[in-house]
Amino acid sequence: MGQHRAEHRGSRRDRADRRSPSSVATPRAAGRRRATAAPRTTSLLPRLSTLATGRRPGGAAARWRHRLSVVPGALGVVALVAAGTGAVTVGEQAPGDAITASAAARAISAGTSAQGRVGQSTAGGSDREAALSRDSERQALQDAAQARLERAAEEQAAERNAELKSLGRAAEARAGEIAKNQWVLPTTGYHLTARFGMAGGLWSSDHTGLDFAAPSGTPIVAIANGTITETGYAGAYGNQTIMTLDDGTEVWFCHQTTIGVEPGDKVAAGQQIGTVGTTGNSTGPHLHLEIRPGGGDPVDPEQALAFHGLTP
Ligand SMILES: [Zn+2]
What we know:
Blueprint: H1 2-18, H2 25-34, H3 39-42, H4 45-53, H5 58-70, H6 72-92, H7 101-122, H8 124-180, E1 191-194, E2 210-213, E3 219-221, E4 226-233, E5 239-245, E6 250-256, E7 258-259, E8 266-267, E9 272-275, E10 286-292, H9 301-307
Antiparallel strand pairs: 1-2, 2-10, 3-9, 4-5, 4-8, 5-6, 6-10, 7-9
The site of zinc ion has 5 residues, from loops.
Protein name: Murein DD-endopeptidase MepM and murein hydrolase activator NlpD, contain LysM domain
Domain M23ase beta-sheet core: 206-301
Region (Disordered): 1-58
């Protein structure tokens, strides 16, 4: 292999020796194989070799300068190679010999790199186009990401709006109930054990209220909006809370374990006022509820509740 390469180099040098300086066809082709797309610089090589060996200094040198002024980027590199090559040539070759093949290769290579730099500067337009293309791709990606973010934000805003509308509707409904003074049942988890008007040994007369049996401590809530007017122990009624509605109706809550409000407190329907108990004349924990319109005689709580849409 090595031998074959040496023979090849030799033959090429022979051709270069036979060649006249103006004939540049063969080395230009050889240069293209070694380094692509450097025709302008390789075309100078024969003249370079002429310069290096001192042959034809006049017209060739003028063309040199002219060419190099056209290609300033190549000047420094090729001139540098020419200087180096001159030293090598003088030391190793006969004075009449032209530039060596390896020096030519170096010159071509150097010229190519010079041409490459020139090409880079003159090809700046396409570089800019590529950069612009990359920029527009980046911009497109950023736009797409931005669009996704905006869509997500819009969806979140829509969800929030829907939630707010739902809350608003609930508040309106609640406000409507308050405005209508909607009643609510006084406790939960109960079962009725005695109705209004029932006769029995526990009462001195017929039963004056409605009994909600529930575990001791079960919350008791106001059945409507109103004001607490009496609280405390009341004999057979045990711990008692009386609230008065806006129309003057009194609501009595009896046998409580605890009382959670004081006279004068404004309470709303559903607000806790105490807990279920078995204080007073009672055989087990339950809420005794009485309804007394205008503070007078008791009426049937079931009917009063039914009048307000409730079925205990
Ligand atoms: Zn009762």
